[in-house]
Amino acid sequence: MAKFIIEGPSHLTGDIAVKGAKNSALKILPAALLSDEKITIKNLPKIEDVDLAIDLLEVLGAETRRDGDVLEVQIKEIKNVELNSLANKLRASIVFTGPLLARAGEVTFPHPGGCVIGAGTRPIDLFLEGFKALGAEVTESNGYYSIKAKKLKGAEYFFTTVSVTGTETLMMAAVLADGTTVLKNCACEPEISALADYLNRQGAKISGAGTPTMTINGVKKISAGIFTIIPDRIEAGTLAILAAATKSTLTMTDCRPAHLEILLNIFKKIGIKFEAGADYLKIFAPDKFRAYSIKTHEYPGFPTDLQSPYTVLATQASGVSIIHETIYDRRLLYTDMLAQMGADIIMCDPHRVVVNGPTKLYGRKLTSPDLRAGIAMIIAGLIAEGKTEIDNIYQIDRGYENIDSRLRALGAKIARLE
Ligand code: EPU
């Protein structure tokens, strides 16, 4: 199995271009199912999760043509309504259910896979409830689901837990339904607004995306056009944290600092200097910075996907930080590995750790349990003295394009061993 070897400590310097957002790409690909016309997707990141989503589209009948970061997709006819074993590897496969149901009136699928960060297998109750509210018939047998609705009907649905993919899936299911759907307590992530803007350009009637209440007036047909994937705010935020944690001066280009307000406001408070434009973010190597406690929250709150890099940053801050992970209950387990590297971290319960900094970190042998913890280990390895070895890097490649070569270009000593 491939692994990363990092020699630390490293101070990096230079510019790095941020790639298209994974969590936008994974929604526009299933959105292609809503129309029989050809969609052109630009700024597509080259990552494992996107490859899996394209494979899944092909299983369903898509013709695809990929050239660099541009992908053309056309699904003239849905050839299959069964999400096959690929769905087990990709949590975002659940998003395919909404457009498939809307266009084909039927979908069958296994419980979706992906990162092991939530309670047991990550729940899908909100999706099933939402589909039922829209008039679909839902049956389940041995972890396999079948959902049917000749024609979905507009309805009101309230999300008792805010869910990003839940919001996107029901929004797409409702686009071709009969009548009006009102979704309440929706997620407000920028990737949702980007998707809604695209669908509206193609004939959908969605209002309120980016706010907690969305109204969708069903239409008969959706066309297809060009969608340019927005910059990955999680990658940009991760690199900003990496710069501060390794005391490096780095400029992230092709990004949108406006999507990182919470992180940048924390940087101001703790003494990390930066310069932000409309499409770039420069972090100036800090000498020292203060501790600051965070609680993960839906957008525009502190993203759970930045919690692990931020926890590594907290090991280098002066003072005590409490990191409170409110979204997932298995997303702090990696902190045990930071403790093995020398961090002063105490786990209070599955949702909270206390970090006392600054501490020196030392290279260790680590295993990446999931995507975001994996990138945090890379940051820790760059801070640490000596050699850090990270196993199971498939979990990192799933979400960050060529991260090793891009960091090497900035001066990091990171090698990939196949
Ligand atoms: N939840 C339920 N029932 C459901 C769905 C979700 O209880 O039917 C719970 C989850 O267990 C969790 C909470 O709701 O506790 C929020 O989860 P959400 O549904 O918002 O997460 P998601 O849509 O599956 C997306 C991103 C995640 C990101 C979260 C939170 C995609 C493909 N994934 O997941 O990204 O952490 O929103 O912002 O968009 C990642 O990129 O590493 C990643 C995990």
Could you write a compact summary of the structure shown?
The protein has helices spanning 22-31, 48-59, 97-104, 125-133, 164-175, 190-201, 233-245, 261-270, 307-314, 335-340, 371-383, 394-397, 403-408, and strands spanning 3-8, 13-17, 38-42, 63-67, 70-74, 106-110, 137-141, 144-148, 156-158, 180-184, 205-207, 214-217, 226-228, 249-253, 274-276, 280-283, 294-295, 319-324, 344-349, 352-357, 365-367, 386-391, 414-417. With 418 residues, it is an alpha+beta fold. The chain has 2 domains: 3-11 and 263-270 and 288-417, UDP-n-acetylglucosamine1-carboxyvinyl-transferase, Chain (Alpha-beta prism); 22-228, Alpha-beta prism (UDP-n-acetylglucosamine1-carboxyvinyl-transferase, Chain).
Word description of this protein:
The chain is α+β, with helices and mostly antiparallel strands and 418 residues long. It has two domains: 3-11 and 263-270 and 288-417, Alpha-beta prism (UDP-n-acetylglucosamine1-carboxyvinyl-transferase, Chain); 22-228, Enolpyruvate transferase domain (UDP-n-acetylglucosamine1-carboxyvinyl-transferase, Chain, Alpha-beta prism). Helices cover 29% and strands 25% of the residues. It contains 13 helices and 23 strands. The chain has helices at 22-31, 48-59, 97-104, 125-133, 164-175, 190-201, 233-245, 261-270, 307-314, 335-340, 371-383, 394-397, 403-408; strands spanning 3-8, 13-17, 38-42, 63-67, 70-74, 106-110, 137-141, 144-148, 156-158, 180-184, 205-207, 214-217, 226-228, 249-253, 274-276, 280-283, 294-295, 319-324, 344-349, 352-357, 365-367, 386-391, 414-417. Strands 21-22-1-23 form a four-stranded mixed beta sheet. Strands 2-14-16-15 form a four-stranded mixed beta sheet, covered by helices on one side. Helix 1 runs parallel beside helix 6 (190-201) and helix 7 packs parallel to helix 9. The radius of gyration is 21 Å and the shape is globular. The termini are close together. The model has no long low-confidence stretch (mean pLDDT 96). Uridine-diphosphate-2(N-acetylglucosaminyl) butyric acid binds next to helix 1, helix 4, helix 5 and helix 11.
